[in-house]
Task: inverse folding
């Protein structure tokens, strides 16, 4: 009797621990969300551009905040399979005439903030 219960406990423990590896066996598609923020497009973005030029270069922003009308938010999130998501956030600031005055790129993957400001 003791042998059967010991064997049952061992099999149960092995079965429960095997369930934790099943998660990575199942295929998960890559899920990109938001605006693709390609480095060459970001490099072309310059202080002094107008809103039409920025929209032509980067596309429509993900968010135009009602309380910050002079700021456009471009957010890109990519989740590849079972890996952690990669997020990049680009903030473009305009003056009252619609001219770019400040650019902030928050690259969470590389944990750095790149900033361009008007002189």
Result:
């Amino acid at each position: 009797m003791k042998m059967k219960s010991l064997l049952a406990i061992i099999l149960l423990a092995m079965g429960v621990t095997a369930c934790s590896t099943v998660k990575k066996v199942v295929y998960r598609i890559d899920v990109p969300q938001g605006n693709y923020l390609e480095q060459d497009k970001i490099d072309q973005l310059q202080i002094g551009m107008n809103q039409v030029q920025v929209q032509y270069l980067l596309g429509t922003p993900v968010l135009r905040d009602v309380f910050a009308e002079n700021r456009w938010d471009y957010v890109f999130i990519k989740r590849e399979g079972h890996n952690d998501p990669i997020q990049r956030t680009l903030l473009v600031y305009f003056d009252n005439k619609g001219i770019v005055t400040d650019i902030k790129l928050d690259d969470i993957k590389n944990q750095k903030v790149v900033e361009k400001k008007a002189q």
Summary: The chain has one domain: 27-117. The mean pLDDT is 81. The first helix runs from residue 2 to 22. Helices lie at 2-22, 39-44, 51-58.
